[in-house]
From TrEMBL:
Keywords: Kinase, Nucleotidyltransferase, Transferase. It comes from the Bacteria. Transmembrane segments: none annotated. The keyword Plastid does not apply. Coiled coil: none annotated. GO terms for molecular function: cytidylyltransferase activity; kinase activity. Pfam families: IspD. This is 4-diphosphocytidyl-2C-methyl-D-erythritol kinase.
């Protein structure tokens, strides 16, 4: 039986950690400050979280992005600097919130539909440690082996998206057992859900959305414009792959 928590009992955490990428307009210091259809990506995300009945989120940003996010977002929001990558950002979130449930949302996945957020919130069972939305893999995936490349069956794979509803106890355990050092250039190396699964945690999955891809470079920004009807899809002319 589902034991879905009241939305007010959940602490949303927005992780604005993706580095700037070539091709983003106006040299945005973080992809979530890119403007799309008249609105900043992060404003779209904040509106979605508010529409799900959630309280104000904590916003965690890397050192270079923190000043711009602090200037841009309302003073009523806590915008915290989190140097050192994803692990340190999650540790900072735990230090600033006593909530037993945290909803982790990558800021660059700002087009995630509200329906996905509500489904994640409503899917938690007593025996679950976390809930995460996933999408099926559509691109070819290969394994690199000593004797060459091997195709992997895509039906056995899923792509993890946002938001992730995680129990505090699980997050504390994962962070306590992970190394404290993290290469700031490779902020994508650590993933709390993958680490939890490696430790045998009970992670429930729900259907994600192909609209919930990460907008973090020129190609994904173009795909976001297409999804909102702001640009034409000509990817078939160039053999481009869609992001998940």
């Amino acid at each position: 039986m589902s034991s879905a928590p009241p939305s007010a009992a959940v602490q949303p955490v927005v992780l604005a950690l993706a580095p700037p990428a070539p091709g983003l307009s106006r040299g945005a210091s973080v992809p979530s400050l890119e403007r799309l259809g008249g609105s900043l990506l992060i404003d779209r995300l904040l509106s979605t979280l508010h529409g799900a009945g959630l309280p104000a989120p904590l916003v965690l940003a890397g050192t270079s992005a923190h000043p711009a996010l602090r200037r841009t977002l309302p003073r009523s929001l806590q915008v915290l600097e989190a140097p050192g990558g994803r692990r340190e950002a999650l540790r900072t979130a735990l230090e600033h919130s006593g909530a037993e449930l945290l909803l982790l949302h990558d800021a660059e996945r700002a087009l995630t539909p509200g329906e996905v957020v509500r489904e994640v919130l409503g899917a938690l069972h007593e025996e679950d440690d976390a809930v995460v939305p996933v999408v099926t893999m559509t691109d070819s995936v290969k394994e690199v082996r000593a004797d060459g490349l091997r195709n992997i069956d895509r039906t056995t794979l899923s792509g993890l998206q946002s938001p992730r509803l995680v129990r505090r106890s699980l997050l504390e355990e994962v962070l306590a057992t992970e190394g404290s050092g993290e290469d700031p250039v490779d902020i994508g190396a650590f993933d709390e859900i993958r680490s939890a699964l490696e430790r045998g945690a009970q992670v429930r999955t729900v259907h994600g959305s192909h609209a919930g891809f990460a907008v973090q470079d020129r190609l994904s920004l173009w795909q976001a414009q297409i999804s909102l009807g702001l640009a034409r899809d000509t990817s078939h002319r160039h053999g481009l792959a869609r992001r998940s």
